[in-house]
TrEMBL record:
This is S-(Hydroxymethyl)mycothiol dehydrogenase. PANTHER family: NAD-DEPENDENT ALCOHOL DEHYDROGENASE, S-NITROSOMYCOTHIOL REDUCTASE MSCR. Belongs to the zinc-containing alcohol dehydrogenase family. It comes from Rothia amarae. Transmembrane segments: none annotated.
Length: 363
């Protein structure tokens, strides 16, 4: 058993607190890791708000690099000392998706079997099955993606962000949207996932990359990460402007990184005939959209949703790290500030302002 510092939220809408928790030694199929970095993600705040469930207390944190400390029986793909990026898609290998060779759609992903606890023995629910706002955490073996590249410690914060938001955005373009070189892409919503989609569009060889948002600061950031054109939708109709920027046709691929009725309708009508729409922004429960069915039929193409950017961590994480090292995927530009565990609550407040892409805890 290991006693470590960690960030826990005890009840709905209470501030997160730094406290001591108990982390077991790994059992069969489990891995104990020393956490090196952890990004402050909107999903963690959803846990605080009760938006993910009411299984309090929650151990927060999930976008992380870590070093393997020890492994349980049956774990052979990593060993102590390995650098890993943590993920929440530990595939089962047995469900119908896995048996079809579509592991990225696994319907039965794994987490650690044992529970981490407070000092009094109260069991903790780990955010996304990871819980890495902690000096050490316990995960399923499949949640560890080994990185063989030679990575400087100063880059741990950057590559750790592949664990969630950046992968969601880049994957929405490259995997779900199946971007082809020379195509046009429009991204509606330029928060962390949206600008990751813009970076993914540049990486994938898009020639026209259009960023849409209501905030000029976010649009400037989008341009820094690869947007060729920007649209502030408070003053310009985004559908008309996207058409204008694509010779009157609409974009080949449109990413909705917001997930509300208005932006989804904009995405639908801003695409070319036979173009693709990908929803990666997480809609609130009950959100609906109203598009005439004859418009769906008449425009052709496809409407898809991207869960984790249809990413298979074992396949995609090492490739994304390689692209970062080659200077083609600027992961370091997503790290706005580096903080300690004690600064997490302040980071949640800063996140609400939209002035940061990621605050990253370094341990």
């Amino acid at each position: 058993m290991h006693q470590v510092k960690a960030v826990v939220v005890m009840a709905k809408n209470e501030p997160a607190t730094v406290t001591t928790i108990n982390v077991p030694d790994p059992g069969p199929g489990e891995v104990l890791v020393q956490v090196k970095s952890c990004g402050v993600c909107q999903t963690d705040h959803h846990y605080i708000e009760g938006g993910v469930g009411d299984n309090f207390p929650y151990l927060l944190g999930h976008e992380s690099t870590a070093v393997v400390e020890s492994v349980g029986e049956g774990v052979t793909h990593v060993e102590p000392g390995d650098l890993v990026i943590l993920n929440w898609r530990a595939v089962c290998g047995e469900c119908r998706a896995c048996k079809k060779g579509q592991l990225q759609y696994c319907f039965n992903t794994h987490n650690a079997t044992q529970k981490m606890t407070l000092e009094d023995g109260t069991e903790l629910e780990a955010a996304l099955g990871i819980g890495s706002f902690a000096e050490k955490t316990l995960v399923a073996g499949g949640q560890c993606t080994k990185i063989d590249a030679d990575i400087d410690e100063k880059d741990y914060a950057a590559i750790g962000l592949l664990g969630c938001g950046i992968t969601a955005g880049v994957g929405a373009v490259l995997n779900t949207g199946e971007l082809k070189r020379g195509e046009s892409v429009a991204v509606i919503g330029c928060g962390g996932v949206g600008v990751a989609a813009i970076a993914g569009a540049k990486l994938g060889g898009a020639t026209t990359i259009i960023a849409v948002d209501v905030d000029d600061t976010k649009l400037t950031r989008a341009k820094d990460l690869g947007a060729t054109h920007t649209i502030n939708s408070t003053s310009t109709d985004p559908v008309e402007k996207i058409r204008e920027l694509t010779d009157g046709y609409g974009a080949d691929l449109v990413i909705d990184a917001v997930g509300i009725k208005e932006t989804f309708q904009q995405a639908f009508y801003a695409r070319d005939l036979a173009g693709r729409v990908v929803l990666v922004g997480v809609p609130s429960p009950g959100t609906s959209w109203d598009i005439p069915l004859d418009d769906v039929f008449g425009r052709g193409g496809s409407i898809k949703s991207a869960w984790y950017g249809d990413t298979l961590p074992s396949r995609d994480f090492p490739m994304f790290v390689d692209q970062y090292q080659l200077g083609r995927l600027p992961l370091d530009q997503f790290v706005t500030e580096r903080i300690s565990l004690e600064d997490v609550n302040d980071a949640f407040e800063t996140m609400k302002t939209g002035k940061v892409l990621r605050s990253v805890v370094e341990l």
